[in-house]
Design a protein that fits this description.
The chain is of the alpha+beta class. Helix content is about 30%, strand content about 25%.
């Protein structure tokens, strides 16, 4: 994700009905002792988020929007196909929505209670370790996370997906998704993945979508309203479509077309695009701020990104969110402390692209924070200078102090700096091989910092554990290979705030040493 301010991610899911016969609940075997699944996946930064005892394989969301009011509550039914990873007497789902109608497990009514943001489900019979099961949550109600003058949208990172639908709301548990929207005729509904059907019956229209590759819940996009859909056909085999607020379509349609060139630019570096579709979704909520978020297959932006900043900001920002489709969406983080693997990589490619296109040296009078770096090395030297300050304020790159410091410049810029140091250490050719191997080896999975260190060591054919752990977990910034003259600022100096340093899609405020 990127914020722009004024100064300051399987095969198609089988039919649930066909599965039910196979997934029928069976008593736990004598070797198993059923017990409750953990109400927490064990994330250091987000205690209470996610759940244990099962692995979600597929979500089917049936969502009804009674009217065209963007702020209206959603009425939905969720069918979740999962596999028990222990003998379960009960299990939890994350859910902070407004209400729940009924819950069943394998078509048998289940007992359920709500405890804070947890939906605690007790099936009629215990679930055996390794068995698949279907849980249905009927008539849950929730409110969209984001309301615009033209409709609703979804910005769920990092932990807001369960405010909309019951889920295992952690990127460690990815699944395929099927979406079905029941909306007033004339209302457009778009979700992650590809359109699989549209049917109108009188005053109601049903839209269906399939996201067949695994996706983390935080990357969901539910867009319903009077939006314009721009179809760009297929590019490199990828279905490309954009979604815009009607007031923006004519002015933004030609600007958003740069994403075609972005796909051309990224594939040689990261490998084949990992999904069936891509595009940009631009909402218009004004407010003098902007943002970008890598919702899987359809990155979302706010209007000021394009109307209040020059191309030197919005063009690399769009590349940043596209890069996330490989790094962060297809390869998701194992835990939130690993976010540098997502944001550091997206920032890395954003900066390389900006250098190649000449945006690092852009200096415009209508942008309050000109970039003004001679080249990529110059930018990395500026980032390096803040290394000790950021580690003291926000924590090491792969060990943020808290959830409040998760989206800090030390994760974005510091993460890119770790990759720069690694390239310096192992050479450009080996580094580029590693980047493609990372995206390929963990495609459709969640991976950790330890996984990255292990793969880097295998690709480089030498143990890089000590080198990378010092860069990722050390409280002081290590010497930069190849640049013995680079120095860090004293920690006594006031450290820049995360808000200031994430200003601009490129977040360069205050970087000059």
């Amino acid at each position: 994700m990127r914020h722009v301010g004024l100064r300051r991610r399987i095969a198609a899911a089988p039919a649930v009905a066909a599965l039910l016969a196979l997934f029928a609940a069976a008593p736990a075997s004598g070797a198993d002792t059923p017990s409750p699944g953990a109400p927490d996946i064990g994330d250091r930064l987000f205690p209470g988020l996610g759940n244990g005892g099962y692995d979600v394989l597929d979500y089917r969301l049936d969502l009804r929007y009674a009217t065209s009011d963007p702020a209206q509550p959603i009425d939905g039914t969720a069918e979740i196909v999962a596999r028990a990873t222990q003998a379960l007497s009960r299990f939890n789902l994350d859910f902070a929505g407004n209400g729940v109608g009924a819950v069943s497990v394998n078509r048998r009514a289940a007992d359920w209670t709500r405890e804070g943001e947890e939906l605690v489900v007790t099936p009629e019979r215990p679930l055996s370790d390794g068995r698949q099961f279907v849980v249905q949550i009927s008539n849950f109600t929730a409110t969209p996370t984001f309301v615009t003058p033209h409709g609703s949208a979804t910005v769920a990172q990092p932990d807001q997906a369960h405010e909309i639908f019951p889920s295992n709301d952690h990127p460690r548990d990815k699944a395929s998704f099927t979406f079905r929207f029941d909306v007033p005729t004339g209302t457009l509904a778009v979700a992650n993945g590809v359109l699989t059907g549209r049917r109108t019956n009188g005053q109601r229209t049903t839209w269906s979508y399939l996201q067949r590759q695994p996706m983390a819940t935080q990357l969901i996009q539910l867009a319903v309203g009077s939006y314009d859909l721009i179809s760009r056909g297929r590019h490199r085999g990828v279905l490309v479509r954009d979604l815009t607020a009607p007031s923006l379509t004519s002015s933004l349609e030609p600007l958003l077309a740069v994403e075609l060139g972005h796909l051309d630019w990224m594939e040689p570096r990261a490998g084949r695009y990992p999904f069936d579709a891509y595009g940009s979704f631009v909402v218009d909520v004004g407010g003098g701020f902007g943002f970008g978020l890598e919702t899987q297959t359809l990155s979302i932006f706010n209007r000021p990104v394009f109307t209040e900043f020059p191309q030197g900001v919005w063009d690399p920002l769009m590349l940043h969110e596209l890069a996330h489709q490989w790094y962060g969406d297809s390869v998701s983080v194992w835990e939130w402390s690993d976010l540098w693997l997502s944001e550091g990589h997206a920032s890395w490619y954003e900066f390389l692209y900006a250098e190649e296109k000449g945006f690092l040296v852009e200096d415009t009078t209508d942008y309050p924070d000109p970039t003004g770096y001679a080249d990529f090395d110059d930018l990395m030297r500026a980032v390096y200078a803040h290394g000790d300050e950021w580690r003291a304020q926000f924590g090491p790159v792969a060990q943020p102090v808290s959830a409040d410091t998760l989206f800090s410049p030390n994760v974005y810029h510091g993460g890119a700096l770790v990759l720069y140091a690694l390239r310096q250490e192992i050479g450009e050719e080996t580094f580029e091989q590693l980047e493609r191997a990372w995206a390929d080896r963990y495609r459709g999975q969640s991976a950790s910092t330890a996984d990255f260190i292990g793969l880097a060591s295998r690709v480089a054919q030498r143990d890089l554990t000590a080198f990378l752990e010092e860069w990722l977990y050390g409280t002081q910034t290590p010497p930069m290979p190849g640049h013995p003259d680079w120095t860090v600022n004293p920690v006594e100096q006031p450290a820049p705030t995360a808000t200031a340093l994430q200003a601009g899609g490129r977040a360069h405020a205050g970087l000059s040493p």
